[in-house]
Amino acid sequence: MAANDDRRPVRAIHPLHAALLSGAVPLFLGGLLADLAYGDTAEVQWSNFAAWLIAGAMVFTGLSLLWAFIAMLRGRAWRSWPIWCFLLLLAAFVLGLVDSFVHARDAWGIMPAAPILSAIVTVIIILAAVVGLASLRAGEAK
Description:
The chain is mainly α. It is built from four helices and no strands. The chain has one domain.
């Protein structure tokens, strides 16, 4: 008697979701670089630039988080990419929100928390992009 395999094939990430997910990476990375530049130069404009980059990254992350939540609800396989992508995006969104609150302080008041938080969020969003875009490998996309 043959075993009944009730698993669905792994679906590839939607192209718009991939664009939203990969769009947050350079924005968070730019925020990190602007924080590091502010730490070196004490030029207030770098702090403002980092705050705006992180705000833009939060828009991309929030939309990508919503899309990952819907993809997670639609799939049955809890071991597939949507659950891991969702959890990483949720962590990036929460820490990015905290980073946005830190950037709302006075210019020198953001140091040293801002570059540390920006570095952590950048690593998490890169991991989320790697997990989400890994479903595009040949053979997995159905």
